[in-house]
Amino acid sequence: MIGRIAGRIEYKAEDHVLIDVRGVGYVVCCSERVLASMPRAGEATALFTDLLVREDLLQLFGFPSLVEKEWFRLLLSVQGVGAKASLAILGALGPDGTSRAIALGDWNAIKAAKGIGPKTAQRVVNELKDKAPTVMAMGAGPVASAEDVVIDDDAPTPAPPKTPKPAPAPQAVPAQTEALSALTNLGYSPSDAASAVAQAVGDEPEATTSGLIRAALKLLAPKS
């Protein structure tokens, strides 16, 4: 199993990238969103990968984080959802958007992905809703880093100097994870807690942990 690829980008196509790893080129299929976020040809990159094995085909799929890779694997487990459809959903929503849509039962958001019909979208939500809390609790998860990529001096396309990337917002994901944990500790079911937190995050993305807990508790309170 190939779980991670790190090397120099040779070229990017519409649905895949070729990454040179010490003279060996790996074709890695990615969503449009992931491809757009990757650096230019000649620069270093790293992706977590999932190897899909078929009778007559071996395909590598690449993701910038383990959370996105986990969603890809879960989406593939849904009947009628293949690799192309899974990438379409993740490409349209991203891992956080996918988590929120499934936790909230929002199949219309899933249906917005290219090639996803209403029946498939409903099936995705119904089959994965109970698994959303586990993925959401992972937080941002590890992110593939190109810091340790070695590019040989005699490579045909030298890598330009790296430019610092802005650090991700430090609070949003830990707050979501901590709020989920607090609500389940209070006795709420993981699926109910995930749905409430997802809605609270959608209403106020920059909320602190305590803010998310308060908002989620209001949503979970019995309606009079």
From TrEMBL:
Region Domain III: start-end pairs: 168-224
GO annotation, cellular component aspect: cytoplasm; Holliday junction helicase complex; Holliday junction resolvase complex
Region of interest called Domain I, as start-end residue ranges on this chain: 1-64
Chain segments carrying region Disordered: 151-175
Keyword Signal in record: no
Gene Ontology MF terms in the entry: ATP binding; four-way junction DNA binding; four-way junction helicase activity
Protein origin, superkingdom: Bacteria
Pfam families recorded: HHH_5, RuvA_C, RuvA_N
Chief location of this protein within or outside the cell: cytoplasm
Location in or out of the cell: Cytoplasm
SMART domains: HhH1 (SM00278)
GO biological process, one term: DNA recombination
Residue stretches of biased makeup (Pro residues): 157-171
Domain Helix-hairpin-helix DNA-binding motif class: 73-92, 108-127
UniProt keywords, alphabetically: ATP-binding, Cytoplasm, DNA damage, DNA recombination, DNA repair, DNA-binding, Helicase, Hydrolase, Nucleotide-binding
InterPro entries: DNA_helicase_Holl-junc_RuvA_I, Hlx-hairpin-Hlx_DNA-bd_motif, NA-bd_OB-fold, RuvA, RuvA_2-like, RuvA_C, RuvA_C_sf
Entry keyword Ligase: no
NCBIfam families xref list: ruvA
Job description of the protein: The RuvA-RuvB-RuvC complex processes Holliday junction (HJ) DNA during genetic recombination and DNA repair, while the RuvA-RuvB complex plays an important role in the rescue of blocked DNA replication forks via replication fork reversal (RFR). RuvA specifically binds to HJ cruciform DNA, conferring on it an open structure. The RuvB hexamer acts as an ATP-dependent pump, pulling dsDNA into and through the RuvAB complex. HJ branch migration allows RuvC to scan DNA until it finds its consensus sequence, where it cleaves and resolves the cruciform DNA.
Recorded domain comment: Has three domains with a flexible linker between the domains II and III and assumes an 'L' shape. Domain III is highly mobile and contacts RuvB.
Family membership noted in the UniProt record: Belongs to the RuvA family.
Subunit structure, as described in the record: Homotetramer. Forms an RuvA(8)-RuvB(12)-Holliday junction (HJ) complex. HJ DNA is sandwiched between 2 RuvA tetramers; dsDNA enters through RuvA and exits via RuvB. An RuvB hexamer assembles on each DNA strand where it exits the tetramer. Each RuvB hexamer is contacted by two RuvA subunits (via domain III) on 2 adjacent RuvB subunits; this complex drives branch migration. In the full resolvosome a probable DNA-RuvA(4)-RuvB(12)-RuvC(2) complex forms which resolves the HJ.
Name of this protein: Holliday junction branch migration complex subunit RuvA
Species this chain originates from: Salipiger pallidus
